Amino acid sequence: MAYPYQIQSKEQYDTIYQKSIEDPEGFWAGVATHFQWRRPWERILDWNFEEPRIEWFKGAQLNITENCLDRHLEQLGDQPAIIWEPNDPEAPGHALSYRQLLDKVMQLCHVLQRNGVRKGDRVCIYMGMVPELAIATLACARIGAIHSIVFGGFSAHSIIDRLQDAQATFVITADGAYRGNKDIPLKSVMDEALEQCDFVRKVLVLRRTGITTTMTAGRDLYWEDEIEKVAADGNPFFPAELMDAEDPLFILYTSGSTGKPKGVVHTCGGYMVYAAYSFVNVFQYQPGEVYFCTADIGWITGHSYIVYGPLLAGATTLIFEGIPTWPDAGRFWDIVDKHKVNILYTAPTAIRSLMSFGTEPVEGHDLSSLRVLGSVGEPINEEAWQWFHEHIGKGRCPLVDTWWQTENGGILISNLAGVTPGIPTFATKPLPGIQPLLVDEKGEPALPVLQEDGKTIVSGNLCIRFPWPGMFRTTYGDHERFKQNYFATYPGLYFSGDGCYRDEEGNYRITGRVDDVLNVSGHRIGTAEVENAINSDPAVIESAIVGYPHDIKGQGIYAFVVCDPDHQPGDDARKAILHTVTHLIGAIAKPDKIQFVSGLPKTRSGKIMRRILRKIAEGALDSLGDTSTLLDPGVVEEIKKGKL
Ligand code: WTA
């Protein structure tokens, strides 16, 4: 048996799941003993969803990097921890063994310490997909600083929001990043943000693309120069800071239904146990295998399943700098073949995009090393599931459909590769310790409904009724928001914001968000955030954003925009809006369609009727339902006529 807590069979899953529900504390304590704690816990779990307060392994001390790195040295010191595949297939990549990775992390710890970073400080990391991103993340964790990684595609404005909210005093970035045929000037975007963030004391800059950057004296430092200085000091070892299990490990900003992104806070002990446990069980990782997750470390999937989960398990994790379609649509298959990847974890949007190129780019690549496939980020449609399974997995690799969220820390609902059955488009069953509950609008457990095929399903809003170690503990600096957003809709339950149904066998199928959050190419985008951005354009009076089905992205962004009478709606206004959104949020939030309208459908109390706009955007023009309660029903006809 590879890991003492690895589930081996369907029967064992059933037994363990049952135990984890009957005695959650005993169950998680059993898992937690397989990690290295510097001091044992006094209490396994203390919780209350009303306050809300969630504490796991209280009183225990640890450092997650000792569990990710030091602990493995004896047995896995020379095994690759990270394999790095650069953007350009012609450029040389490299691997870092566990020993080398620890050395690099410790060197960077010395750099951080010399530059004043202390336990509890917030460090913002804004980089491309280079090994140094993982090194920076781990160095923060080792020194006890709280990392806040910002995805390299976010704009200066988004960085400002995040820097200010976290009051980050130290920034780690790079001159630029390569992504496909693009060369992103990270440092200059950061410089723009820093103009408004004078509380940032130091900026560490990795040289990656070699573009000219402005270095501010006294504030900006080159990574390589600083490393050279500490290397000259000669003491390579850097002891890991002792952290309480409930000390924050990181903040990660994510979009919600209100305007501002919220800082999801994860803590050291519980997150560690859950990231490792879920990684080992869902993917059924076997020692020595090469594991490739195509996400960006700037999202939660990258945190938990590129960096922490795999390293905690002593796995070999592949970091890919580029994109699936450059230089051609065979790039992933090229990587799988070249590095003999065993486990491939990607997103439905990537699969759909690659599918559109047909099977030709797949041919000629040896994919026989693949053993497990995984999907994350949005509901996977049947067609994409089948294509992935048949053309990539050649019909022989189990495919795990993993449902979870930034707030969850790790996968909550998924089949376990080759151990519990996968069903196309179903995330299937909860992991041990996870207690899902589907509720109706009033918060009552949803009741079974008879379907045409004679079977019953239960359909409702997906909640979780008991804590798990990997769940977030607060939203940074605003505990009330944490309570209101997640625990107030249905008292006593964590509400995910997702709709879902369950079949007679207890398999869950996620149907998508039921709140005002869109899922575009697997990225969470708050409609209010995009509306705020559009409304800040001087030509715009107001706007409403809804999602509509998009072949590749899953959901596309449809904007209904009311222009100021002094401004002509048209191509120029459209361009200006796209520019504003890119500037304020980032290119990922650009509307796919912009329809100029003379007014928005509103109730008499002034509330925008998004339901109607959603139907129009979907093209369901004949099923708008009752529009008689609208302030101005005529506007609906106009909008229908102008639909894009
Ligand atoms: C959606 C990503 C269906 C869901 C890990 C959730 C999914 C949101 C799946 C979280 C899946 C994620 N099936 N929907 N397997 N995985 N989602 O925070 O709507 O970026 O609420 O975390 O993605 O997105 P987040």
Give a written overview of the molecule.
The protein has 644 residues and is α/β, with parallel strands linked by helices. It has 3 domains: 10-65 and 246-513, ANL, N-terminal domain (Rossmann fold), CATH 3.40.50; 69-241, Rossmann fold (3-Layer(aba) Sandwich), CATH 3.40.50.980; 519-641, ANL, C-terminal domain (GMP Synthetase, Chain A, domain 3, 2-Layer Sandwich), CATH 3.30.300.30. The protein is built from 19 helices and 31 strands. It has an 8-stranded mixed beta sheet, sandwiched between helices. Strands 5-4-17-16-18-19-20 form a 7-stranded mixed beta sheet, sandwiched between helices. Strands 21, 22, 23, 25 and 26 form a 5-stranded antiparallel beta sheet that branches. It is globular, with a radius of gyration of 24 Å. It starts with 9 loop residues before the first helix and ends with a helix. 52% of the residues are buried. The chain binds 5'-O-[(S)-ethoxy(hydroxy)phosphoryl]adenosine. Residues 254, 299-301, 376-379, 401-406, 427, 496-498, 510, 512-513, 519, 524 line the site of 5'-O-[(S)-ethoxy(hydroxy)phosphoryl]adenosine.
How is the secondary structure organized here?
Blueprint: H1 10-22, H2 24-32, E1 43-48, E2 53-58, E3 61-62, H3 64-68, H4 73-76, E4 80-85, E5 94-97, H5 98-114, E6 122-126, H6 131-143, E7 146-149, H7 156-166, E8 170-174, E9 177-179, E10 182-184, H8 186-194, E11 202-206, E12 220-222, H9 223-233, E13 243-244, E14 248-254, E15 262-267, H10 268-282, E16 290-293, H11 300-312, E17 316-320, H12 331-339, E18 343-346, H13 348-355, E19 372-376, H14 382-392, E20 399-402, E21 436-439, E22 448-450, E23 456-464, E24 474-475, H15 479-487, E25 494-502, E26 508-513, E27 517-520, E28 523-526, H16 527-535, E29 540-550, E30 554-563, H17 571-584, E31 593-597, H18 610-618, H19 634-641
Bound molecules: 5'-O-[(S)-ethoxy(hydroxy)phosphoryl]adenosine (WTA).
